[in-house]
């Protein structure tokens, strides 16, 4: 090993580096994300059968999915789903719920105020700030450019 030149060492190291499993990761993300969305659709269909209007169904479905994501995070199940599904578990609304609950659980030993409450928005905080900020900018631009129409 010590007597190898750079080219030989590079060939040797390329053989030892694990090959990425892109297709496997893509398929698992698709399946996990699809399963989460299917569960969301089942909840939505169930709520529609209960006679709720469209806005109430949309709100209730979101609330239920956030609760499920938080509950599964609390049980330690959502992290395992995330390890399997990657982006498929991170993108839906349940991933947002997971991003809020995980840091809160991690810092619960520091107490409810300086631990749970202050750390809850460590990951979700920037998303909320930039999401709200950009929506205000888009709203103002929409108001300015469509005022006379």
Automatic annotation (TrEMBL):
A Pfam family per the record: SpoVAC_SpoVAEB
This protein's UniProt keywords: Membrane, Transmembrane, Transmembrane helix
Transmembrane segments: 21-44, 56-77, 84-101, 121-145
The keyword Magnesium is annotated on this UniProt entry: no
Coiled-coil portions: none
InterPro entries assigned: Spore_V_AC, SpoVA
PANTHER family referenced in this protein's UniProt entry, alphabetically: STAGE V SPORULATION PROTEIN AC (PTHR38450:SF1), STAGE V SPORULATION PROTEIN AC-RELATED (PTHR38450)
NCBIfam families to which the protein is assigned, alphabetical: spore_V_AC (TIGR02838)
Protein name per Swiss-Prot or TrEMBL: Stage V sporulation protein AC
Recorded name of the encoding gene: spoVAC
